[in-house]
Amino acid sequence: MDINNSFITKYEYGKMLYNNPRGIGCNSCHGNDARGRKMVDFKHQLFDKKVYNCTLIIPDIKSIDYETFSQKVNTKKNINLKFEKEQVCEKLIHNANVMPTYFLVEEEIEAIFYYIQNMKK
């Protein structure tokens, strides 16, 4: 599909998908500039009363290469990923599976990536 020969440009199509791919838009977490941001700070207390101060940071997707971007968009979380005992925050965030699965096709992923790379500053 050659999106540049249609009524909407690849940039416009990518922008539309970035803001509303299938439900929640990429911009809701990664920001309107795709630079990521701190989403939330939270505390987690274990049974032994130890308190962990955690921060969920949404990554910058403006500076990554296409292969990494494409791989991350539709990847399911790795349920077999192992964490060290002290990696409580990392394990909680991983298990929360914050990144939605969109089931995007390659043309959609390419359009979103194109938009991100060519965003107005």
From TrEMBL:
Residue intervals of the Cytochrome c domain: 9-120
Transmembrane helix among keywords: no
Pfam families according to UniProt: Cytochrom_C
Keyword terms: Heme, Iron, Metal-binding
GO molecular function annotation: electron transfer activity; heme binding; metal ion binding
InterPro entries: Cyt_c-like_dom, Cyt_c-like_dom_sf
Protein's recorded name: Cytochrome c domain-containing protein
Organism: Arcobacter caeni
